[in-house]
Design brief:
This is Permeases of the major facilitator superfamily. Keywords: Membrane, Transmembrane, Transmembrane helix. It comes from Methylobacterium oryzae. By secondary structure, the chain is an all-alpha fold. The chain has one domain. The chain is built from ten helices and no strands. Helix 1 packs antiparallel against helix 2, helix 3 crosses helix 7 and helix 4 crosses helix 5.
Length: 260
């Protein structure tokens, strides 16, 4: 299978799986799964295959910086969504991503470890801001989403991954890395959750995505440290395993009742 065919097949398959999980177990689980490196890992693998292992390893630094920008967009959405409409909150979140990305990658250029130190508290804050208030009722979910729902989700996610990976040769490793952690699955999930089930469901997706971002961060750190030093298959396998281990505690915690 060619890389372009893999992009067209893998992305909608993952989008379908995450959307189905969200319908079965709720928006929080959907957000948590969408926050995993389900598209970040394929994009990094595509970069390594198309541009070389060193390119992908260097891009991982930009991805850690870009993950900080993604987290800022989550923060902007968490603050604006209860006060604004669907379009306005998404536009504000996108503006926050662009400004934070320009600041982190273009001005500060913190590098791997300082960017990691910036990302961690920002992700924790996003999780806290999106926690439901005590006594808040769970959002009512539709039994039958509209027929266009799933095709629209698949098309949006596939278009985004093709755009990000297609721009990589023209942007270089740094900017390609910044674009790689764009939540290709999360944002369509957030928008559709808001449109169908309300602000609470959308914030559940954001909270799950922010929790999953801890795993994405671990993935990129491992990719930068391992790729080019060991076999690429082993490097990606180890990176994905560490990422999953970082997300597992959130899944366990979800099964416990929140303290009053």
């Amino acid at each position: 299978m060619s890389l372009i065919a893999a992009k067209i097949v893998v992305t909608p398959t993952l989008m379908w799986a995450v959307s189905a999980a969200a319908r079965r177990w709720g928006s929080l689980v959907g957000g948590l799964l969408s926050g995993l490196p389900l598209t970040s890992a394929p994009i990094s693998i595509y970069l390594a295959a198309e541009q070389g292992e060193r390119f992908a390893a260097d891009a991982a630094i930009g991805s850690v910086e870009g993950l900080g920008a993604v987290t800022v967009s989550y923060l902007a959405y968490a603050v604006s969504a209860p006060r604004t409409g669907i379009l306005a909150s998404v536009v504000l979140a996108l503006a926050a991503f662009v400004l934070a990305g320009a600041l982190l990658h273009g001005v500060i250029q913190p590098g791997l470890w300082l960017a990691t130190a910036i990302d961690l508290p920002a992700m924790a804050l996003a999780v806290i801001l999106c926690r439901p208030a005590a006594g808040t009722a769970a959002p009512v979910r539709r039994a039958r989403p509209p027929r266009w729902d799933m095709p629209a989700r698949l098309a949006a996610a596939t278009a985004l991954v093709l755009l990000v990976s297609g721009l990589a040769p023209h942007l270089g490793s740094g900017l390609s890395g910044v674009l790689a952690p764009i939540p290709i699955i999360s944002w369509p999930l957030i928008v559709f959750a808001r449109a169908q089930d309300g602000v609470g469901a959308a914030l559940d997706v954001v909270r799950g995505s922010a929790q999953g971002a801890f795993g994405v961060l671990a993935f990129y750190v491992c990719v930068h440290l391992l790729l080019g030093r060991i076999d690429p298959v082993a490097a990606y396998a180890a990176s994905i395993a560490v990422s999953a281990a970082c997300v597992l505690p959130w899944l366990v915690a979800r099964r416990r009742p929140l303290a009053a």
